[in-house]
Amino acid sequence: xxxxxxxxxxxxxxxxxxxxxxxxxxxxxxxxxxxxxxxxxxxxxxxxxxxxxxxxxxxxxxxxxxxxxxxxxxxxxxxxxxxxxxxxxxxxxxxxxxxxxxxxxxxxxxxxxxxxxxxxxxxxxxxxxxxxxxxxxxxxxxxxxxxxxxxxxxxxxxxxx
Length: 161
Known about the structure:
transmembrane; about 10% strand; PMP22_EMP_MP20; Epithelial membrane protein 1
């Protein structure tokens, strides 16, 4: 049981780190230009230098929603990590990890909403750059989506042991 808890803890920390990286880095969409590779994230558009991401007025609420949900997912993931540590030492068997699992599933839902909005509205769209494709941050966000769901379910199952 201790090995299982340690493994879940390590995966949870890895998920938090990957969420930070995928939200902060600006490599959600990548394309080539005459000046070299260009990348676009949630905050900046980088070619040789980085500048604020310019979106048209109809896409701005969608971008703000993606930014908000990704930040919320980080917050909920960190809260779930803290709650895991607190519940590990304070609650008796049968009541452990219920809150942690619920918070992690809220994190999972925030990632789902944020990345789904980005996929629907922005994936493959980089004006003035030919043939854009997904960057590593976009892929990391989907990996975090899978990990947070698995961790949330495991926390709910572990509460009974």
